[in-house]
Amino acid sequence: MFEFIRTHKRWMYGILLLLIIPSFVFVGMESYQSNDGGAGVATVDGQKITQQEWEDAQRRQIDQARQMMGEQFDQKLFETSEAKQAILNNLVAERAINAEINRAHMSVSDATLQKTIMDIQQFRLPDGGFDMEGYKAALAAQGMTPEMFDQRLRRDLAVQQLSGAIQATAFAPRSVANRLSDINDQEREVQEVLFPLSTYLPQVKVTDEMVKAYYDKNAQLFQIPEQVKAEYVVFDASTVEGQVQVTDAEVTDYYNKNLKNYTTPEQRSASHILITVSRDASAADQAAAKKKAEAVLAEVRANPDNFAAIAKANSQDPGSAQSGGDLGVVEKGLFVKSVEDSIYAMKEGETSGLVQSEFGWHIIKVTGIKPSTQRSLDDAKGDIAADLKKQKMSAKYTELAGVFSETAYDQSESLKPVADKLKLQIQTADNLTRTPNPALGDSPINNAKFLTALFGNDAIKNKRNTEAVEVAPSVLVSGRMVEFRPATKRPLAEVDAQIRQRVTLEEAGRLARAAGEAKLKAAKASGDATGFGAPVSVSRTKEPAINPTAAIAVLKADVTKLPAYVGVEVPGQGYGVYRVGKVSQPAQPDTARRKQESDQIGNLVGQQQMYDYVEALKAKAKVKINVRPNELGANTDEQ
């Protein structure tokens, strides 16, 4: 049908459904790792995953995260060994799943593929049509053609079918769900007595000996890390912007060679009435459906102006029947062929005979025709010039990036040769450490890969240029150490006041704990509530009336015998002793929340089943990991 196949509506700009299976499936592959440098970064079912694929996948994930997170995006999160490992694990799992899909001969029909594309809301026009030009442009921006995207989407929909079939079988055992909900619902009546730090702070006398002992015992807290002062040069796309020009002749030539890109194809609006019947239905069912369709067709021909009302009363397409059978704008290549051919063969206002498709019998009416239009050269000139300039800049950047990398490496005693050759400015930065500094934000020199190179043995011992490091898409940096300062320890006098404050708090906490533990011991012996405050209710589903750390301890306490007592250090406050005097269940359970909890447990069971299934596929596919995450960037492919 035209409307009920709406299984995925979200568009991840550029590449849709990169991987349907949730990321939790693809963790914990350490047992597969080995160290074979000649077979790509990994092999799955004998097929290797190249380092280029690994790096490309990392770039895609970074780009997608940058678009989704905006100003909150932090690229350093994606440069950790854990992030790189997760991406490689995803690629491995994707290959294993694809191998299984091929073995199982799973497929997606053309109709489902077409409707999934048509349902991408970002390309729906105000009149209901599909923005084919915008769709192609979005794919082109990602280096894809519609044919390439069709192939990827068809595969990913098959993956979605596979994962959905497995997770759909998951459910939460009622006894387990009820038990967990009972635990969440449980309420404990609690009384508190707090031994605050403020009571004991005046009792603490910190001596010089205590300060020195703390300083010596916690030397790592007062360490100043090794630092460097460095020179560096940055080469990025903006460097080449003024070096490329686009002429009017080039714009005209491009326009003439790509006229189809500036032509909007004819669009037709249509309505239909659908009488459903499967192609593999019995002969009797097929005959009955055709008979009903013929009767409806006769009614339409007798009352052609009442097509919408007849469709609303008779059409079995749930998506369009209530709107009088309106299909909106029908683009060529995006609908079932038999229906599309009929629509484009008729004149405006004309009604078809019976048209058969895999969904059943259709009666179609063409409600509007929008002729093909062509964008003029003058109108398109600005966009073409911008696109051509971008292409030239990309080519120029690639050319000069090689010059940048080679010069920085070949003439490594100084950054001046590469700066002079490419007209770059040599900049200076001080107090750089091995780890990125949050205060420097997204500065090119605050990149973890660049800092690793800058603190490398060759850079420090020989003061040579670092290799060119790509710190962001189309951004290269090379640096050179000017001054190296080894790690040092801050003088005791400099941190004396800081240490005295810490020791005072620690000693006050020790005194509070001693007093609290004595109260706890006495309360357990007597069982009374002397000295405790008014009772409050504590549960897992309500905002706690006591400190959250204390609430966790109270809810973990053994309440098989009441009253129950528990003592806990309350961060920043002191030491608390808590008396649990009563345990109860609410008179009216929250049925909606319990249902939600049961569903969540079912989802967790489904996720575990999917995890187990993918692990089995990995084993079947004979997965082998040949590198570790910190080797990303080394050439592991066979030449």
TrEMBL record:
- Transmembrane spans: 12-29
A GO CC annotation recorded here is:
plasma membrane
What is the first-listed, main subcellular location in coarse terms?
membrane
Query: What Gene Ontology molecular-function terms does this entry list?
Result: peptidyl-prolyl cis-trans isomerase activity
Write out the annotated subcellular location.
Cell inner membrane
| Entry keyword set | Cell inner membrane, Cell membrane, Chaperone, Isomerase, Membrane, Rotamase, Transmembrane, Transmembrane helix
- Output the PROSITE patterns linked to this UniProt entry: PPIC_PPIASE_2
Q: Where is the PpiC domain?
A: 265-368
Q: How does it sit in the membrane?
A: Single-pass type II membrane protein
The record's listing under InterPro entries reads: PPIase_dom_sf, PPIase_PpiC, PpiD_chaperone, Trigger_fact/SurA_dom_sf
Please report which protein family the annotation says this sequence is part of. Answer: Belongs to the PpiD chaperone family.
State what protein this is by name: Periplasmic chaperone PpiD
Q: Which organism is it from?
A: Massilia arenae
